[in-house]
Structures are given as C-alpha cells and as structure tokens.
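Record 1 of the preview.
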Amino acid sequence: MAMNTPRQTSHLKREILVRLIKAYLSDNFEENTRLIPYAMRPKGSEVPYRCCIHKERAILRDRTVAGLGMSIEEADDSVLLSTLAHKATDRDKPESNPLTVLTSACKGCVPSRIYVTDLCQGCVARPCVNTCKFGAISIQNGKSVIDADKCKSCGMCVQVCPYQAITKIIVPCENACPVEAIQKDEEGYAKIDFEKCISCGKCVAACPFGAVHEKSQIIDVLKNIKAGKKVIAMLAPAIMGQLPCSAKQLKNAIMKLGFFDVYEVAQGADITTKTEAAEFEERLENGAEFMTTSCCAGYNELVDKHIPEMKPFRSDTKTPLYYTSEIVKREHPDAITVFFSPCNAKRKEAMKNPNVDFVLNYEEVGAWFVALGIQVAECAESEFKAQASAEARNYAVTGGVAKAVQKLLPEHLPTYPVVINGLDKQSIRDLKKYAKNGVCDIGNLIEVMACPGGCLGGNGTVNAYKPALKQLTKYVNESEPLEVNG
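->
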C-alpha cells in the first residue's frame, strides 16, 4: 500500500544525502561534494548496477545534483560538482519544480503497449478477436497480431485469453502517473510535463531505476541553521509512524539537529477540522449536494490543473500546514520554517505559502540523523508546547480527515462520508463525474487522498505501511480525543 521508493534506490539516495550533509558540515563543502561519486565508486571497486564504473559515477553525480536541489535537465555535465555545491549555498529559495529526471539512470523503457507473446495458440474460439471493439486484432499465420494504430490499450484481450498469451507491457513511471504527466521525449527518456504534473510523487516511487528524483532542500536548511537563524520544524502527523521512538524522543532528536523548536502540524489539523466542519454544515444548509476536503496537496493540484469544475465543491478551508505555519510565524515572526513531509506534493504547496520556507521529506530527515550519528531511540524526551487531538494526529491515515470532521457535525445533519483512497485514473474519472453532475451518488462528504493509505503511504516515507500504521495508531490512542464542544 505504501508508495515507498524501492529499497536499493532508497539506499543510494540516503547514502548521497548522508555524504552531502557531512560534506556541508566539513571544512571543504565544495571539494568533498565533488568527490562523492569517486568515494562511492573508488577505482577498482565492484560495479553493482551498470556496465562500467564511469557510468555508475555519472549517475551518482546526477543524484548528487538532485541532492543539491538542482534540476538535472538544466545542469551542464561539464560543470564540476564543487561549482554546483557553491551555487547551492548562494541561492535564496528552492527551484520551482520539485522533481527532476536523471536521463543517465533512465532505462529508456520500451513503449507501453499490449503485446502477443509466443504462448499464443491461435485457438479456434478467437476470444481476443471477438472481444476487441476496435478491430485491432487479426489472425496471421495462425497467431494473433495486434495493430498498434487501432489498439486503445483497454486490456480486454489480456483478460479473455485462455492461455494468458497476451500481456500488457508497461512503463512503470508512465503507468503510475494518474494524469499522464510523464512521457518519453524524442530520445526515448522520461520527461515530466510540469503543466500537467500534480507532484504526487507516484513516478518517484514507481521507477525501479530511481530515475525520477526529488530536488532536496537539505542544503538550504543546513545553511540557515549554520547562519544561526531561528529554524523551526513542523512535523506532519505521518512522521510519528516512521522511526523507532516516541514522539517526545523525536522532538529531542530534531532539536539535536540544530532546530530552535518543533511544532506538530496536528495542531493546525485541529483548526482545519473545526473550520471544515462548520463550512460543510453551512454548505449543506444552503443546498449543496456535496463537498470534498482540501487537505491533500496532490488533490488540490489535480483540481487546479485537471478538474477546475470541481472548485465550487472543494472546501475553502486551509490545510493543517497552512494553519500551523501561521501559528509559528505569529509566535516567532523571525523564524525560518521547515515542514517535515511524507510526500512530494507538499513542496508545491509550500512554494505558494510565504509562511513555509522549506520542506524536507522523511528520507532526508533520516539521512540527517545518520550523518550526525543520532540514535533517536536513545534520545531523552522533550515536551511539545501545544497538544493536538487524537483525531488530528489520525489525519495521516485514509479516512482520518472525514472521521474528524464528522465528529463535530450535528447529529441531525445528513452526513455520508466517501473516501478516495489514492488517486488513479478511475478515481479521477469518478471525481470528474461528480463535478460534472453536481452530485455524488454515494455520499456528500468526500475525503480525497492522493496516496493509498493516506499520508502514511506517501513517497517520502521510510517505514513500511503496516508497521507505520501500528506505531501511529498507538500514538493516536494515547492522545486526548477532540472536544466536540471545545
């Protein structure tokens, strides 16, 4: 269920991030950054993934560029990593698009298509021919043949073949993208159309080569801490299921990284719950047929770019991050705010919010602990200044938002929650239908989560879904419930 990046690519990302952090904290950041590919693949070492050591170093270099927060597509191969490292420390804000593609790592997969294998028996029943509505399948030399120009990739022939001789060849990143924002360029490599991209990160998790990469903001955060600024961390609830420690130990560990203070974003989630419940009640009393939640950044990007007709039905309530960052900036106007996020989409949300300066995902935070040798399970406990409800901390799980909102609604109000557990092509078709018809035939309070399982299944998480859920549930159960009349 979780969207975690495959293990080996995650290990490579983490090792590079650890080395980058250590390089920044060293006496010579630029030179030590330049040496990262060579330190990871020294002369005479084993070449585990590619054809030669030079290819591996080239890919590690590109991963380091992404770790520095830069677009690989726009980086000149002739420029030294040391020069790029210096450039990273000079920038004032992160680059606009949070994703980049390593063409050096991209396999250039074969085109996605329906394909007849050698298992085809040319059977008399011809189920594939008879099932195809587009006339794309014919029999030639006793075997089924698919006309690529006519084929719509519906997959019906795959389902009816009694020998399972017809298969669908997929390109993992393209297949995972719910909005067809990633396709091959003229050279056969993956390319992201940022006009369509909703920053959900599904392509990052899907690519088995780790070719789609997030641009890290770790150097920006380190620079501000080193400059002695008041840097404050804001933790999305999903982080409580990621590391083998209590929430209070996690706060202490984060303080050891150099942060001035740590806030739970669940604090803002309580504001979201109360505001959204009041909004939903008002909308229904005014005759609205349904309302969707507005917490998920990936869903908000989807509506803005692909389903504008859904805007009247989307809640106007702000996200938990929005309200939490408001609180932080009100209490500490001079603070630099850093959101610890389970997903890539929150980077786009942060870029639109002047109260959020930087975003780090849990992979980056974990690498930071490793770089500094911090054992979170051995840390002392530190209290959070403000407490949040159990319902707010459960926002990280699919259904948690709707459950929290419903708790505050009056009993007489007809409330029928619906949960969209992950955005895919089918769920997007459903949402478009609801928006077009102005009614949802299965409910009236629609919670939309871009990731299956909710934020706990985001592409920036580090723990498998089931153990993460178990750990988060324990934290939620230990928390005080939301006061209905509070």
